[in-house]
Amino acid sequence: MSGFVEYPKALLHDHLDGGLRVDTVIDLAEAAGHDLPATDSKGLAAWFHQGRSGSLEAYLTAFAHTTAVMQTGPALERVAYEAVTDLAADGVRYAELRFAPSLHTAGGLEPTEVVAAVAAGVQAGETESGCIARLIIDAMRPMSDSDDVAKLAVASRHLGVVGFDLAGPEAGYPNAGFRAACQHAVAANLAVTVHAGEGDGTGQISQALHACGAQRIGHGVRIIEDTTVSNGEIVALGPLAAHVRDMRVTLEVSVTSNLHTAIYPTAASHPIGLLHRAGFAVTVNTDNRLMSEISLSDEFALLADHHGFGVEDFHSVTAQALRAGFGEWPLRHRLLEEVDDAYRGLGSSL
Question: 202: domain CATH number?
Fold first, then answer.
């Protein structure tokens, strides 16, 4: 971890099956009789690192091994517990963890049992660490059960589920095709966030907002394509970009992940700094801590090095994440006050 651990943080976009500890993968694989591409910690960590994957589709192939070892209640509970405690150790005060129950039923678990096991692990991690954690349930676009997954999400509120999401590859899967599932969540007053503007462009963002009723956009960085940039700043907005900025649609930005999927070639060329300075509701996220071999503190360090972020900027994106979270407002409001106090104490220490 970088020197930013002391900075209080809030995390909205972190995939449970993308954040396992390497040693946990090895332990669970041995118990499940699952063959891994490497059996020592160093070799497996190197294999999982997707820095050279070059596309979203290639990046996603690594998940076959993490989901394979997350097929029992105890395994899911352990992974969820470790996720919360690991995030807490990195200074995260509030986190929303997302996962697709349908990917964890190969061992015979019912989707409801999957959610219950993850929720139990999250609760144990929260009790031990003090990090407030809530759950978002994903429907995977290549699968055909999105309506059922949305219903499961709505029925699982009592287990800490606060949102519904569409995830997986964007190409060939227009978000508008999942209108019914998303609208089921919306009609039941469950929050919706949708992966869009990561692999495909602004069309997917528009569909996420207007067909799916999304309140936040997972990634969303290709909204930059509906802007005009001159001399290193956004100087004009198209109608969709203006809507996203002015309606305060929160962008769940994950810089390192975007570099690994080759959306942008370098950290400096990523548009997060442009969007943040232009007043978009930007948040900073990890996406997949194992596959990208990063922490949220690492993401902060990258932004300081390549986009000039200072204490005020980190305060801004953290406060935005707490305001845009889907969890209970009294909890988030308390955390927001604590974070405000903590950042005032940091002053200009960067």
Answer: 3.20.20.140
